[in-house]
Amino acid sequence: xxxxxxxxxxxxxxxxxxxxxxxxxxxxxxxxxxxxxxxxxxxxxxxxxxxxxxxxxxxxxxxxxxxxxxxxxxxxxxxxxxxxxxxxxxxxxxxxxxxxxxxxxxxxxxxxxxxxxxxx
Length: 120
Known about the structure:
It is built from 3 helices and 4 strands, in the order ββββααα. By secondary structure, the protein is of the alpha+beta class. It has one domain (about 5-115). A 4-stranded antiparallel β-sheet has the order 1-2-3-4, with helices on one face. Strand 3 and strand 4 (about 55-60) form a beta hairpin. The radius of gyration is 15 Å and the shape is elongated. The model has no long low-confidence stretch (mean pLDDT about 90).
């Protein structure tokens, strides 16, 4: 069973996601968990909210799609840092075989993740 170490939601303002009006709040939720063996797993979930923020119009692994739809996100350093870490390490503990593979996040990237999540 995994234990959540840290979780943080990052807000990137309103963008034109579901229409041509800038009414959809874009968020990324970054999570770091630890499995029973003490191994850390990194994950990111993207959400674009309806104008009332009662439901999402996009959600899940849509970080690339959000960036394509809202190219101004490329100018946000935090968004790009999370995007780059997501590309390299998202769900690093998930594997498709029974050999016990676990992708270990390099120290410099783990330091960035911990800085994002405000943990030591």
